[in-house]
Amino acid sequence: xxxxxxxIAAVVHETRAVAIDRLMLDTARRLRARGIKLGGLxxxxxxxxxxxCAEMRLEDLASATHVVISLQRPRGSxxxxxxxxxxxxxxxxxRGIASGADFVIISKFGAQxxxxxxxxxxxxxxxxxxxxxxxxxxxxxxxAFEGFIxxxxxxxxxxxxxxxxxxxxxxxxxxxxxxxxx
Length: 182
Hints:
Layout: E1 8-13, H1 17-33, E2 38-46, E3 55-60, E4 66-68, E5 70-72, E6 79-81, H2 83-98, E7 103-106, H3 111-114, H4 120-128, E8 133-138, H5 142-149, E9 154-156, H6 160-174
Parallel strand pairs: 1-8, 1-9, 2-7, 7-8
Antiparallel strand pairs: 2-3, 3-4, 5-6
Helix pairs in contact: 1-6, 2-4
């Protein structure tokens, strides 16, 4: 049996994270509409009245379960990551990736991942299974991303057409060859 190396791509950006979160969420919706079985996590940011930060939720792409990953703080002091929520979402993602996903999206390689935490294990799991992996990374975290992934990855602009073209080509590449009739 031939094992394909996992193609990895990152949307490299300098824009606000909320715009990238929306792009990754839209990408997941569009790929799912094409019949691609997804695994991984995408972030939803839900504005809350009376709060200066949005509630952050991760959606497990295999089960559509949403997990809150932010803790509200007193007004003016910002948001804080909920480690327990992140761990819960990560466990869901691991199950979804292992259950036969064709393509994996991890919304971002962010500060937690750069520090050796966050969703690194889920990215590694997908790579070890030979699945295409899409994430996003801010240009300031590129050294940490490359230290984790290595040099063999595709840099994508924050444009849906480029992301979709790459995603569709990698899913087609990873499909098993049809068996010829005897």
